[in-house]
Amino acid sequence: MLRQVKDITNLQLGAEDGEIGRVKDLYFDDESWTVRYLVADTGKWLPGRLVLISPASVDMIAIEHKLVKVNLTRRQIESAPSVDRDKPVSRQHEADYARYYGWPMYWYGPALWGPTPYPVYERRDDEPPTSDPLVNSEQTGDPHLRSAGEVIGYYIQAQDDDIGHVEDMIFDDQDWAVRYLEVDTRNWLPGKKVLISPEWIRDVSWERSRVVVDVTADAIRNAPEYDARAITREYEEKLYEHYQREAYWNRRREILTE
C-alpha cells in the first residue's frame, strides 16, 4: 500500500507493552530512496536519545487509530545502543542496532534489504551490541541517510525550468521504497499536484535544497493530476505511460521470478 510521509508523521508509536512516543520523522537512504528508519520522539522518557525503529519491526500502520504498532518492548528500546541526537548516525551505529534487534543489514546483499527484497525481523533476546559507536570519535555519519522531513519543501527543477517544490513523499509499506515525490506546481499551475519518481532524479543539491529531475517542465505540466484519495494502479499506469517510463512493479516482478 502506498502511504504519505505526512500521514505517518506524529502518529503514536505503540510497543508490545505500552506507548513509546510519536513518529517524528522518517530517515531514507538517498542511493536506493528507501525508508530505513522511523525516528521516534520519546518525550521525557528517553531525553537526549535518538531512537530509530526499522520498518522490519513495524507490525501495523493504523491511520484511523493514529497508531504505528511495533513488535518491540519498552525495555528493548531503553537498553538499545545509545546515539546522540545532535550527532550524525554512523554505519557502525546502524550495524550495532541491527545486531541488537535482529534487523537486516540492508547495505549487505543484492536486494533492497540486503539478502531479501523486504525488511525481515529476526527476534533476538536482547543481544548486546558489539561496540559503542560513540566511543570511537573517528566514526562519521552515513552520508546517504537523509531526513524525509527535511526534503519536504525542496525546490524541484526540471530539465528546462523550475516547476515547484516537494510537498510530500510517498512510500510503499511492503518494501518501504519511496515511490514518488509529490510536487506542488502552484508556482505556475495554482493548486495542481503531480507525482515524480525518484528514479527520474538526476541530481540533488542538499546544500541548495534543490532536486533536479530528468523530465521536461511540459511533461510535468501535462501529467495526470495527483489526488491522494484516488491513487490506484490504474492511475499509476497512466502516470508511467505519460512519462514513457517502465513501471516499477514490472521490474519488481522480474526480480522476484528470477
Structure description:
The protein is of the alpha+beta class and 258 residues long. Strand 3 and strand 4 form a beta hairpin. The strands form two sheets. Strands 1, 9, 10, 11, 12, 13 and 14 form a seven-stranded mixed beta sheet that branches. Strands 2, 3, 4, 5, 6, 7 and 8 form a seven-stranded mixed beta sheet that branches. The radius of gyration is 19 Å and the shape is globular. The chain has two domains: 2-146, PRC-barrel domain (SH3 type barrels, Roll); 152-257, Photosynthetic Reaction Center, Chain H, domain 2, CATH 3.90.50.10. The chain is built from seven helices and 14 strands.
Please report the total strand number as a whole number.
14
* Beta-strand percent range: 25-35%
| Domain tally | 2
CA-based shape: globular
- Name of the CATH homologous superfamily of the largest domain: PRC-barrel domain
Largest sheet: 7 strands, mixed
Order of helices and strands: EHEEEEEEHHEHEEEEEEHHH
Stretches where pLDDT is under 50 for at least 5 consecutive residues are 125-140, 254-258
CATH architecture of the largest domain: Roll
Gyration radius (Cα, Å) is: 19 Å
Proportion of helical residues: 10-25%
End-to-end C-alpha gap: 24 Å
Query: What structural class do you assign from the helix and strand content?
Result: alpha+beta
Overall average pLDDT: 87
Indicate the CATH class of the largest domain: Mainly Beta
At the fold tier of CATH, the topology name of the largest domain is SH3 type barrels
Tally of helical segments:
7
